[in-house]
TrEMBL record:
CDD domains: nitrilases_CHs. GO terms for molecular function: nitrilase activity; nitrile hydratase activity. This is Carbon-nitrogen hydrolase family protein. The keyword Transferase does not apply. Residues 8-281 form the CN hydrolase domain. The keyword Hydrolase applies. Belongs to the carbon-nitrogen hydrolase superfamily. Nitrilase family.
Amino acid sequence: MTDPVKSIRVAAAQISPVFLDREATVDKAIEHIAVAAKQGVNLIAFGEAWLPGYPWWIYLVSPIKGFPFAQRLYKNAVEVPSHTTDRLCKAARDNGIYVVIGLTEKDRGSLYLAQLFISPEGRIIGHRRKLKPTHNERAVWGEGDGSDIIVIKTDFGNVGALNCWEHLQPLTRFAMNHLNEQIHVSAWPGFSLYTGIIHSFSAEANLAASRSYALETQSFVIHVGPHTDEATVAMLCDDEHSASLLRVGGGYSEIIDPNGRTIGGPLEPDTEGLVIADCDLSLIGAARMANDPAGHYARADVLQLVFNRSPRRAVIFRDVDPQDGPKEAAEPPTLLSVAPPEAHVAEL
């Protein structure tokens, strides 16, 4: 019997996508996956909707003015599995590294804000969607369901992920804590929007949410905010008003330990690069001895969470048997536990 791994090296990719260009953005992901692996990184995380870029226009212009951008996003969204995910899987396998990446997923006719977990063997071992898109995001993405609250068992510990203001949902945090998360990807779109206008959109406010998450769940948190580059701002901001709302930069990525201490980063917000830190997993046990809100620190006699993990489906197919009548046709299994499902393998 081998001893459990005591330490993991993780990286937050404070990198700008090639905005609304799916395959060019994948090229950039592959490049930085390789860079991270050469520095001994075991797990690299990319931000919210990073592939092929966060739809900033929903906060900048009217729906009709944003329609051409919406069309480009739809065209460049990612089907799972697909040639695009094959390329990401191959990069993970070639470099022997775990990858957690945020993307806009296209499923049939709808878009969803998804995150993929890819193993060093090149398999998709986790796939989730944001439970509730925030504010104007609801004009772009559909909703996830209870089966999207997942924690994945890896060689280096239990890994989970949430997007942006999912971190403000106390019951979601409690559910993730119950699933024994140890390494958490806190994915954000970056902090380039409404700078100095709405404090709740600021880097300071949202870093506080990630730090609180680390303290509450006793996990290592990879707080990753992509860099917004000049090309993206130039594409979206063609007048003085919109240019005042979105700026270049906004990274502010950090890595936080279970005691709420920054152990990696930050980079300068206007800089692209990787934030890297070594996570000593033995710190988790010490933190949980003092504070385990979903365990010994809970008061289930007073407050309990009802957690519906069933997938929500708009259509349930039934096969008709002439003798026995209609029967429900089984759909492919959905990830409902820490154990990974059968996974898609990248083709070489």
